[in-house]
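Could you help me review a protein record that somebody else here produced? My question to you is simply how this chain folds and whether the tokens agree. Thanks in advance; the entry in question is below:
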Amino acid sequence: MTGYEPRVRAADEDDLPELERLGELAVDHVRTQKGGDVFLLRDARSAPGATSLADDVRAALRSPGTRTVLLGSLGASAVGFATATVVPTPGAPLAVVEELYVEPAARRVGLGHLLMRTLVDWAVAAGCGGIDADALPGDRDTKNFFEGFGLVARKITVHRTFGTDGV
């Protein structure tokens, strides 16, 4: 997928089929990561009542001041997306990157960086005092990617899965 300039734009309802396709690829990727299954159970989907990426994206599109959905492309092909939300906190609100995904064949050409830069710009314009994103344990590429934007670990969540006998 080289030879095309990466582009990012605000997504709209017409993009739902592509966003859903990309979202399923993102979920498949997260499932392969250490801690991914529990992350998907506990932390995925931020819209109340959302049972699918399409539900969540529809809710985000209806909340342009507090959520954003971006579509990334190379040429005419949609190959990445990102979503973020504003979370109120005492003082300045916090932007939270909910999802940021680029198809493997389209990586290393700057699209992920453009998506993240656009999220940072959106967060600053929304008056946020900072931005958070998740990186699963052992996913050094994601951790390094976010560190390249000045994000540093501020919390580590630990987990233990119980067997069928509870231990």
